[in-house]
Design a protein that fits this description.
With about 700 residues, the protein is mainly beta. It is built from 7 helices and 37 strands. The strands form 5 sheets. It has a 22-stranded antiparallel beta barrel. A hairpin with a 7-residue loop joins strand 1 and strand 2 (about 80-85).
């Protein structure tokens, strides 16, 4: 058998288009009523309860031998299940048990455990998250999926993490690729791919009630109910609310950030005769976030610094059908519609996304397998002009047509595997693109896997980079010379010719089982970037009569090149059946060549926004059947951008199960220092120093 690897809130100051405050208040009333109704239904619908300490049908990976863990399968590399130990990519998996035992409350905090990832908290609801460099609040080169549904925002080319309040109790695992995944997932899967996979409804039967609160996680509560549909399927419904206070203080002020969300959802799974599997799920949410903003005005050329409120809401509906045509042939159709609305200080948008994807796998010879598919994604969105941003056209429709093909072959049975394929896409903005990939995996011994890959990936421009004007900074008069006495307003004026950023990546990895109870995963990479986003200063012009200020336009160009390299290490050791220790380490360097202009400063910042060294050590210990003691030590090297010092922090979780179905936990986070800074990446959002915090919670299963 193969060996394993393993407050006070003030309303927004301006009146916002269709998304007015009164409409938001009304919507929250009916949304809250829906959540309460779902919770009440769940509680009243349990005439017979399941008594269990874990979700029915679930599994606790701390009670599985490492030899069995070698059979864990992942689908993020090729959209087809394959053993993790064999995968020719830098793959990492966070299980449901990992998430629960570390006490994290967000996907963002869970990603701190992944080697090669840099997670920096901006304030109560915002994070800057990246894989292998280019850290920013909207990391444009990281693709994030929820059950295969993309949450990458085509406006700002990144993820609005404050809108991704995942119900962690329903997460089965988080599969992560460090490095390109574009040949499978398409554009923007450049430096990494994250796919959050939810549990089948059959694993969440019964009722789960959880509640708690603390210093940062002010209060939270969730009710989930799952049941069966005769002999053919299962279902679950849930309602949840979360209220998070300020994570700390802004550098020169008080507590100005907060975040709260109400949400609900369902999942329905049907299976017939082992040939067809149908999953339907839906989710809706309604939230607000408060942040400290420093924003220059396009109208008055003045800077406003204030705590303003962001309002957001959305919903989605996803269907996933798997059909076995024969023993050698399988097909999969996935489709979803996603609606999101956001009223932020810099901009306001309404976005509807339609997506359909078809995949077919066919084993046409003993050692040969062909996988191919096609898809279409359509974005229908509307932007609203504000005091801080202007758009030439408020409505915009964009589409992506795609197809992919991949051939896999066992060159030497169970020893040497080759996979070659490519994604083909046609984008409204940038036309036809090809993103090929070749992966080779070799097992000289059952306990060792060596792999290598070569990939091409692209990052397509977002709408904000192709149209519209944004005020980004108000500079002193000296910025244009000693003789100038007028202030200088800097604006980003995108160019319709701004195109794709490109990457060629070379990777090498080694997985080995050192002993029956310990394994190590090492990945090395070298990346070459071309057509990176650059900026070019235009000609200053005076505004007003008489002149009141200068406007200095900054144009976006594809003038940058760069390279990066690094090493990522992950090790796990099961000391006993009750005690496990794991550690990760990442080393990273990035160098970017800038055009010969004053705009080269942007490239200096990009080269110094990610720490050179990141390390974690995690332990899970169960000294008794009813007690869990868990902890994580995190180290992050200094970050030159923003003069962020190095820090070491400690998270601790203690859980006790006094009864078979009841669990109480206490979690302390960032315990070693009163506060520390993690981020300085936003042009407009003022970062908040992260303070130590704690919360207590109860979980009752019946």
């Amino acid at each position: 058998m193969k060996q394993p690897i393993a407050r006070e809130r003030r309303p927004h100051r301006r009146t916002c288009g269709r998304l007015s405050q009164s409409r938001w208040v009304q919507s929250r009333h009916w949304f809250t009523a829906v959540i309460i109704a779902c919770c009440a239904t769940a509680l009243l619908a349990v005439p017979a309860a399941w008594a269990q300490s874990r979700d029915a049908g679930g599994h606790d990976l701390t009670q599985v031998d490492l030899e069995d863990l070698g059979n864990i399968e992942v689908s993020i590399v090729s959209k087809a299940d394959e053993p993790l130990f064999d995968a020719a990519a830098a793959v990492y998996v966070l299980t449901a048990d990992d998430i629960e035992r570390t006490g994290v409350t967000t996907i963002a905090d869970a990603l701190r455990l992944v080697p090669g990832f840099h997670v920096a908290r901006v304030d109560a609801g915002k994070w800057a998250i990246s894989a292998r460099g280019f850290t920013s609040q909207y990391a444009a080169k990281l693709l994030v999926l929820l059950d295969g549904r993309s949450v990458y925002n085509p406006h700002n080319s990144g993820v609005n993490w404050d809108m991704q309040n995942i119900n962690l109790a329903d997460v089965d695992r988080i599969e992560v690729i460090r490095g390109p995944g574009a040949s499978t997932w398409g554009a923007n899967a450049v430096n990494g791919v994250v796919n959050v996979i939810s549990k089948p409804a059959a694993q969440t039967r019964g009722t789960l009630v959880s509640s708690g609160g603390g210093t940062l996680e002010s209060r939270f509560g969730m009710v989930r109910f799952g049941g069966v549909l005769g002999d053919v399927g299962s279902y679950r419904v849930y309602g949840r609310m979360s209220d998070r206070g300020s994570i700390g203080r802004v550098p020169n002020g008080g507590h100005h950030d907060s975040w709260d969300v109400a949400q609900g959802g369902f999942r329905l799974d049907i299976e017939q005769e082992g040939r067809d599997q149908l999953s339907i799920q839906g989710h809706l949410f309604d939230g607000t976030a408060r942040s400290q903003w420093t924003v220059p005005s396009l109208v008055s050329a003045t800077v406003t610094t204030d705590a303003a409120q962001t309002m957001f809401r959305g919903w989605h509906l996803l269907g996933d059908w798997k059909h076995a045509i024969s023993e050698r042939s399988r097909m999969n159709v996935k489709a979803y519609v996603d609606r999101s609305e956001r009223d932020d200080v810099p901009s306001e948008f309404y976005l509807t996304t339609f997506d359909i994807d078809y995949q077919h796998r066919y084993q046409h010879a003993a050692r040969w397998e062909l996988s191919w598919g096609a898809g279409m994604r359509v974005h229908d969105d509307r932007m609203v002009d504000t005091e801080y941003s202007r758009f030439g056209s408020l409505d915009d429709d964009r589409s992506v047509l795609s197809a992919y093909v991949q051939e896999s072959v066992d060159l030497v049975a169970d020893r040497l595997q080759l996979s070659v394929g490519s994604k083909f896409e046609d984008h409204t903005y940038t036309g036809f693109n090809v993103q090929p990939n070749a992966r080779l995996s070799w097992q000289p011994l059952e306990s060792h896997t060596l792999w290598t890959s070569v990939s091409r990936a692209i990052r397509t421009p977002g709408r904000n980079e192709r149209s519209g004007i944004f005020a980004v900074a108000l500079l002193p008069p000296s910025a244009l010379g000693e003789d100038n006495h007028l202030s200088v307003l800097t604006t980003i004026e995108p160019d319709s010719g701004f195109g794709n950023e490109e990457l060629i990546a070379y990777e090498f990895g080694w997985r080995t089982a050192i002993t029956q109870n310990a394994h190590t995963d090492v990945a090395l990479f070298y990346n070459e970037y071309d057509q990176l986003r650059s900026v070019e200063y235009g000609t200053p012009t005076t505004i007003g009569d008489p002149p009141t200020h200068f406007v200095l336009p900054v144009h976006l160009r594809n003038g940058g090149t760069g390279k990066s390299y690094g090493l990522e290490l992950a090790s796990t050791w099961d000391i006993t059946r009750q005690w496990s220790v794991s550690a990760t380490y990442s080393f990273f360097r990035l160098f970017i060549d800038a055009p010969k202009s004053r705009a080269g400063d942007e490239f200096f910042h990009l080269s110094h926004v990610t720490p050179r060294h990141i390390a974690t050590m995690r332990w899970s210990w169960s000294p008794a059947a009813v007690v869990d003691l868990d902890g994580v030590v995190r180290y992050q090297d200094a970050v030159r951008q923003g003069n962020l010092p190095a820090f070491t922090e400690l998270d601790v979780r203690v859980a006790v199960r006094p009864f078979h179905s009841l669990e109480a936990e206490v979690v302390g986070r960032d315990l070693l220092q009163p506060r520390h800074r993690e981020a300085d990446y936003g042009l407009t959002v003022q970062e908040t120093a992260v303070e130590r915090s704690a919360y207590a919670g109860l979980k009752w299963r019946f």
